[in-house]
Amino acid sequence: VGSGPAPPRLPGSLVRSGGFVGGRWVQAAAAFPVLDPASGAELGRVADCGVAEARAAVRAAWEAGPGWSAERSALLRKWYNLMMENKDDLAKIITAENGKPLKEAQGEILYSASFLEWFAEEARRIYGVIIPPSVKDRRLLVLKQPVGVAAVITPWNFPSAMITRKVGAALAAGCTVVVKPAEDTPLSALALGELANQAGIPAGVYNVVPCSQQQTPAVGEALCTDPLVAKISFTGSTATGKILLHHAAGTVKRVSMELGGHAPFIVFDSADVDRAVAGALASKYRNSGQTCVCTNRFLVQKRIHDAFVEKFARAIERELHVGNGFDEGTTQGPLINEKAVGKVERHISDAVSQGASIVTGGKRHSFGKNFFEPTLLSNVTTNMLCTQEETFGPLAPVIKFDTEAEAVAIANSANVGLAGYFYSQDPAQIWRVAEQLEVGIVGVNEGLVSSVECPFGGVKQSGLGREGSKYGIDEYLEIKYVCFGGL
Ligand code: NAD
């Protein structure tokens, strides 16, 4: 267990231990512990909601649907204002339950709140269409209407933003929601419930059913098969996404899936090496490598390779500081749990056993059992585990390549495609590669690309649908064609 400070005191006014169903805080038959990933200490216990609570939440959402309409832009705006007024406390809750450095948690709260602000405005722009008729006595209209109750299942790596990115769009569209947060990070979801309540969002519009890992499969199945649920929106691993798709098929629900990535980061010979190193650092090590758009494999062209590896290693050693997320100066908090640490270790030992070299890092960090040294590997090849699946940790493997075609082929060999990055100063190459990469999001000479105004989502097995931007609300709207005849 870590040698860092005792578990942080949580801001009591926003910490809730019950589920939030139909506007009331509810207890369940049992409770499950929420742990501080930095120390292993228990932060508190939260109601372990089961199938009964999930069904009750769905019913509450369904009953709240018809009354949820006119005021929604103003109420989303109030919810946004309350998030901003409480931003420091909300960030502390994230750092406590997720471990990320407080600065990153504060950044997540601003990002998270921005979805409520954005969709408060989008709620006012759900325009229909009038279609010119080909028959004289007809008038043809397209209406957009909310799909109905949305079940929202979210991961632990962005405990707040992955909720508002979905819920902001859903509520703006006129849907009501049931949120099942990740078992590691339910407190942020419940704090949002407290603020939704204070904002005056009506009972049943935003419901939260936290549950333990043991209850999760049953609760997930209940949400994805309930006939009152019209839409499933999920962010998490591709493996879980496939289970949920399977459940949702029985009642042909609408689905949005934000799944795993395996982002390539290509550095071409023409790149500005210092910019590439800065982008690499940001895109690889944010949230200790635990974001779905984090670079998972570096592809570096032959001539620039040695300079890039050398400068990247020095930058890692100089700029990254492992420690408790609450400590000033920490850039690398703990991984979420020991299983995550085990995966990083497995990827490194597999690579080293096949000839990769450790340039820096390579082992668990002395700060505590969930901490890992930021690691850089060179001499990496495409048959190693770390270049075949998402590591989701602070490991940067570097593959050396010769030609552009070879790099694009390696990048596109993955069966997922969320984000991809490349550095080049050749405009023709920039257009070519941006168009050829099989991903939903491309960073050109840029390592941090997410923003509320831009569409977020992947291709291939990285998912279905887009979040944020002017497109995000469409995931929660049905198109209805109305034909007026006999006019
Ligand atoms: P995960 O799939 O294990 O868990 C995500 C959520 O699904 C959690 O709430 C979990 O409790 C729930 N869940 C797990 N099994 C379930 C089941 N059988 N039925 C219902 N719910 C179930 O993923 P994770 O480890 O928490 O998150 C990491 C993954 O998420 C990575 O693959 C990452 O790339 C991906 N991710 C994707 C995006 C994106 O926008 N594409 C964003 C963040 C994370």
TrEMBL record:
<dbReference type="GO" id="GO:0004777">
    <property type="term" value="F:succinate-semialdehyde dehydrogenase (NAD+) activity"/>
</dbReference>
<comment type="subunit">
    <text>Homotetramer.</text>
</comment>
<keyword id="KW-0597">Phosphoprotein</keyword>
<dbReference type="InterPro" id="IPR050740">
    <property type="entry name" value="Aldehyde_DH_Superfamily"/>
</dbReference>
<dbReference type="Pfam" id="PF00171">
    <property type="entry name" value="Aldedh"/>
</dbReference>
<keyword id="KW-0809">Transit peptide</keyword>
<dbReference type="InterPro" id="IPR015590">
    <property type="entry name" value="Aldehyde_DH_dom"/>
</dbReference>
<protein>
    <recommendedName>
        <fullName>Succinate-semialdehyde dehydrogenase</fullName>
        <ecNumber>1.2.1.24</ecNumber>
    </recommendedName>
</protein>
<dbReference type="InterPro" id="IPR016163">
    <property type="entry name" value="Ald_DH_C"/>
</dbReference>
<keyword id="KW-0520">NAD</keyword>
<comment type="similarity">
    <text>Belongs to the aldehyde dehydrogenase family.</text>
</comment>
<comment type="function">
    <text>Catalyzes one step in the degradation of the inhibitory neurotransmitter gamma-aminobutyric acid (GABA).</text>
</comment>
<comment type="pathway">
    <text>Amino-acid degradation; 4-aminobutanoate degradation.</text>
</comment>
<feature type="domain" description="Aldehyde dehydrogenase">
    <location>
        <begin position="25"/>
        <end position="482"/>
    </location>
</feature>
<keyword id="KW-0560">Oxidoreductase</keyword>
<dbReference type="GO" id="GO:0005739">
    <property type="term" value="C:mitochondrion"/>
</dbReference>
<keyword id="KW-0496">Mitochondrion</keyword>
<dbReference type="InterPro" id="IPR010102">
    <property type="entry name" value="Succ_semiAld_DH"/>
</dbReference>
<dbReference type="InterPro" id="IPR016162">
    <property type="entry name" value="Ald_DH_N"/>
</dbReference>
<dbReference type="InterPro" id="IPR016160">
    <property type="entry name" value="Ald_DH_CS_CYS"/>
</dbReference>
<dbReference type="InterPro" id="IPR016161">
    <property type="entry name" value="Ald_DH/histidinol_DH"/>
</dbReference>
<dbReference type="GO" id="GO:0009450">
    <property type="term" value="P:gamma-aminobutyric acid catabolic process"/>
</dbReference>
<keyword id="KW-1015">Disulfide bond</keyword>
